[in-house]
């Protein structure tokens, strides 16, 4: 349409409902941030070293950094109404690849290893995406299959071998523990990725199309959106981020065997769901997923300090996930009711 | 301008006739377009000519080929033959994106929006205004949305999610989208079906202003009063072919109805006379708010009662309520004098009621299972011995019905989804006949079935009635209703508007009762 409208358009005021909804959306991420603060405060009161010690502060930021990356990738895929269960296996493969590159090619530049692992992860993600987008098989099934397949390749390749810290260059290992000012390098990397991906998801056409596809896939087809391409990009992103997480895993822990990263896919899905990403697509943000990842791992560390027995720690995580889903469901139902009511007020 | 009316009841003449010639090159022109799906010919000879600055109505019975024609224009289907021109140039769309790029916008009866995204995002998805870093300019986008709504004279909050919007508002958003794309051709497929009187008036005001901007509009509707109120020209289709194009001022409702149904039907669907006995199914005052109202009728032994009406009149909903799948607020259902409880299909089956649903692929069959498993599905309880059921039991039961219905399949282990439409329908029928019902409700018995199998299904229904079964047959195909039914009930907008005996039923009076909307604007 042309912008030469004769009269200035009267501004349609934001209705009360719209304002409240935007508040709720922000509150969802704020809410889990608040939960995170409460956990940290409680643990610090029980043991001041949890926060007020060099190690405490470093662990608080460092521990969740790698999972944050995987959860960001997972959130992108979940927002398109799919799921990527193979991220743990991709992380494991790229972690071992990192070690092998340093062992087999002495003097290889660290940057080259990063690029190789990210590209490798992206290719594994492309396999997932192609199977989902072209074969039209539900992502749950495809990525459950590649979860086992990729892990199988890992076991075949690694055998009983393992990468040890002594095989790796000192500069590389320093990445895993080093800090810029008071912030661990891994955390800086995770934050940079988070800011970039968060911006793309919110402000670009491509980013909004992920939401559109997840919100109603058949409508996306009718709109003429390039659904296949978007799905491929989502899975490649998820794979590439898991690949990046694999390199950082090696830098952080120094030892990699054939089981590295196993079970991480569930933590990643859990983190995203806790952070308000709807498993049915179209709703949530990578920021929420990232905060969810921090909360998930911080709770794991805080519970022993608060004197909660081992036995209950996994259960608490479960309660957290179910609680988050129930909360989202209740909010969604209430929102729908309010939106319908707002319509009838007109 | 050529102003005479062309009516051709002779099929040969239909195929060889085009809409009247006009001097200006038409905006959109379809000429003798053909489309088939396997053996089913959906469109034999579709012709349509849309002019800029004009609202054109497209009418015809269900199955006349209107939707197929629209889907070809929208790029959802590709035509098998015929010509399709846009501004005089030959086009052949292979996707909806191409049709959209050519300036064609289709607004479907049920709009498809993204519920989680805002109204503004819904309008601009995929083509949001961006700066040179690829950042979406939300302010510009919102301003444009406001301007669009102002131009269309509606007030919708551009920041709210699409979730929870009324169908009317969703259509307005679709229209806003079309306008922002500067679509030159707007097609509205029964847009008023779900709207209230006020909403219809608002939609019409929008449509008129779009016409005055020089766009070509196509309006598909069953409501004659709306067509006369809004449109400039009307094209009638029948049996997948073009019948006539007439300026609206030069036609009447009776004329249009005659063009829509005009054909000889009695020969095609013979029902053998059967002895009509006691009432088997009695429905009294059945009401479900907003869906159907005060529905009363009875079906007697040996009788086929046809339930006619347009799609969306509430016929299938009544059938589902009678069978106990859907709830209802008041009224009663009795079988053989015995009352049926609400919402208990199992009780309905026990009392001898069977329902063959409209959509056999979704509701009638387990497509992935074998023929024999499908046939024995409802009677599994009776087949089982000590709670255990074997393939042998299933096959024995299925064999009886498959042979009686002449299901054409090599083996009973054939997967149901691979059968033809007609044979699938027979399997669904077999499944329900295996329960030995006294009353059969059958919804659209021959939809999407080729002519030969159609006749078999009709013969079968006739035979069942002859053995004393009571049959309620819902059908959108007038010839089928007129040929098969002993008595015709007509529904419109949730009410029974006519009950006509076989001897008195004609295409005209049934169609009139189904369409004559006296209250559409109230």
Written overview of the protein:
The complex is a heterodimer of chains A (346) and B (522). With 346 residues, chain A is an all-alpha fold. Chain A has one domain (30-334): ABC transporter involved in vitamin B12 uptake, BtuC, CATH 1.10.3470. Helix content of chain A is 75%, strand content 1%. The model of chain A is unreliable at 1-11 (pLDDT under 50). Chain B folds into three domains: 11-113 and 165-261, Rossmann fold (3-Layer(aba) Sandwich); 115-164, no CATH class; 279-352 and 437-515, Rossmann fold. The longest helix of chain B has 16 residues, at 197-212. In chain B, strands 6-7-8-3-9-10 form a six-stranded mixed β-sheet, with helices on both faces. In chain B, helix 5 crosses helix 6 (167-180) and helix 9 (253-261) packs across helix 19. Chain B is globular and about 75 Å long. The interface between A and B is large, with 41 and 42 residues.
Task: Looking at this protein, list some descriptive labels.
heterodimer, A: 346 residues, mainly alpha, ABC transporter involved in vitamin B12 uptake, BtuC, two-stranded antiparallel ribbon, 13 helices, 2 strands, globular, disordered N terminus, B: 522 residues, Rossmann fold, 19 helices, 34% helix, 23% strand, disordered C terminus
Largest sheet of chain B: 6 strands, mixed
Question: According to CATH, what is the class of the largest domain in chain B?
Answer: Alpha Beta
Strand order of the largest sheet of chain B: 6-7-8-3-9-10
Topology order of chain A in helix (H) and strand (E) letters:
HHHHHHEEHHHHHHH
Main location (chain A): membrane
Protein name (chain A): Autoinducer 2 import system permease protein LsrC
Function (chain A): Part of the ABC transporter complex LsrABCD involved in autoinducer 2 (AI-2) import. Probably responsible for the translocation of the substrate across the membrane.
Subcellular location (chain A): Cell membrane
């Amino acid at each position: 349409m042309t912008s030469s409208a004769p009269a200035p358009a009267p501004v349609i005021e934001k209705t009360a409902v719209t304002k409240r909804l935007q508040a709720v959306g922000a509150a969802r991420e704020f809410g889990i941030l608040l939960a995170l603060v409460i956990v940290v405060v409680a643990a610090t009161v029980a043991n001041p070293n949890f926060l007020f010690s060099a190690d405490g502060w470093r662990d608080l930021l460092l521990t969740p950094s790698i999972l944050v990356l995987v959860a960001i990738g997972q959130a992108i895929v979940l927002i398109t109404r799919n799921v990527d269960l193979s991220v743990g296996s991709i992380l494991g493969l790229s972690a071992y690849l990192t070690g092998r590159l340093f062992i087999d090619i002495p003097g290889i530049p660290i940057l080259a290893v990063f690029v190789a692992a990210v590209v490798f992860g992206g290719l594994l993600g492309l396999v997932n995406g192609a199977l989902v987008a072209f074969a039209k098989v539900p992502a749950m099934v495809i990525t459950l299959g590649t979860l086992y397949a990729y892990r199988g390749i890992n076991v075949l390749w690694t055998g009983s071998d393992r990468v040890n810290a002594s095989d790796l260059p000192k500069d590389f290992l320093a990445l895993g523990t080093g800090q810029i000012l008071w912030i661990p390098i891994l955390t800086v990397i995770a934050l940079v990725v988070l800011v970039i991906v968060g911006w793309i998801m919110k402000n670009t056409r491509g980013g909004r199309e992920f939401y559109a596809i997840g919100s109603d896939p058949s409508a996306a087809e009718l709109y003429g959106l390039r659904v296949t391409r978007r799905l491929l990009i989502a899975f490649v992103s998820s794979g590439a981020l898991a690949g990046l997480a694999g390199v950082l895993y090696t830098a952080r822990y120094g030892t990699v065997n054939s089981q590295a990263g196993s079970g991480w896919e569930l933590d990643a899905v859990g983190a995203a769901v806790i952070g308000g990403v709807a498993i049915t697509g179209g709703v949530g943000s990578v920021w929420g997923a990232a905060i969810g990842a921090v909360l998930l791992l911080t709770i794991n560390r805080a519970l022993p300090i608060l004197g909660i027995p081992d036995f209950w720690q996994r259960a608490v995580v479960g309660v957290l996930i179910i609680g988050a889903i129930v909360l989202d469901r209740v909010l969604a139902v209430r929102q729908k009711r309010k939106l319908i009511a707002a319509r009838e007020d007109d | 301008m050529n102003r005479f009316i062309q009516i051709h009841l002779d099929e040969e003449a239909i195929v060889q006739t085009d809409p009247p010639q006009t001097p200006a090159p038409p905006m959109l022109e379809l000429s003798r377009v053909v489309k088939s799906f396997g053996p089913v010919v959906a469109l034999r000879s579709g012709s349509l000519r849309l002019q800029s600055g004009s609202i054109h109505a497209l009418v015809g019975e269900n199955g006349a080929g209107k939707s197929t024609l629209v889907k070809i224009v929208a790029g959802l289907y590709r035509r098998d033959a015929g010509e399709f021109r846009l501004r005089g140039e030959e086009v052949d769309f292979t996707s909806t994106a191409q049709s959209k790029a050519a300036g064609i916008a289709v607004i479907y009866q049920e709009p498809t929006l993204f519920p989680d995204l805002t109204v503004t995002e819904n309008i601009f998805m995929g083509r949001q205004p961006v700066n040179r870093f690829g950042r979406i300019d939300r302010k510009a986008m919102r301003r444009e949305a406001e301007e669009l709504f102002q131009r269309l004279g509606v007030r919708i909050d551009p920041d709210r999610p699409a979730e929870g919007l009324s169908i009317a508002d969703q259509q307005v958003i679709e229209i806003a989208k079309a306008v922002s794309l500067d679509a030159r051709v707007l097609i509205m497929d029964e847009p008023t079906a779900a709207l209230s009187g006020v909403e219809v008036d608002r939609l019409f005001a929008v449509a008129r202003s779009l016409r005055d901007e020089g766009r070509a509009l196509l309006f598909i509707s069953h409501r004659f009063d709306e067509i006369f109120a809004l449109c400039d020209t009307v094209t009638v289709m029948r049996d997948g072919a073009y019948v006539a194009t007439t300026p609206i001022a030069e036609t009447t409702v009776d004329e249009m109805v005659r063009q829509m149904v005009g054909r000889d039907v009695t020969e095609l669907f013979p029902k053998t006379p059967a002895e009509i006995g006691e009432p088997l199914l009695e429905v009294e005052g059945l009401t479900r708010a907003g869906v159907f109202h005060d529905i009363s009728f009875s079906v007697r032994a040996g009788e086929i009662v046809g339930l006619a009406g347009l799609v969306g009149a509430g016929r299938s909903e009544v059938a589902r309520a009678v069978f106990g799948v859907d709830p209802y607020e008041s009224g009663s259902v009795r079988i053989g004098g015995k009352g049926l409880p609400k919402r208990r299909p199992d009780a309905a089956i026990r009392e001898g009621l069977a329902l063959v649903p409209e959509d056999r692929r979704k509701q009638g069959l387990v497509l992935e299972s074998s023929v024999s498993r499908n046939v024995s599905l409802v009677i599994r309880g009776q087949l089982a011995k000590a709670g255990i059921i074997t393939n042998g039991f299933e096959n024995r039961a299925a064999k009886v019905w498959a042979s009686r219905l002449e299901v054409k399949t090599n083996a009973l282990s054939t997967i149901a989804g691979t059968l033809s439409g007609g044979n699938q329908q027979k399997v669904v029928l077999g499944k329900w006949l295996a329960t030995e019902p006294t009353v059969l409700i059958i919804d659209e018995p021959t939809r999407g079935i080729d002519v030969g199998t159609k006749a078999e299904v009709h013969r079968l229904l006739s035979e069942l009635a002859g053995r004393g079964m009571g049959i309620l047959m819902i059908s959108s195909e007038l010839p089928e209703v007129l040929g098969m039914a002993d008595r015709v009930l007509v529904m419109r907008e949730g009410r029974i508007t006519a009950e006509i005996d076989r001897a008195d039923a004609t295409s005209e009076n049934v169609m009139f009762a189904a369409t004559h909307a006296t209250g559409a604007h109230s």
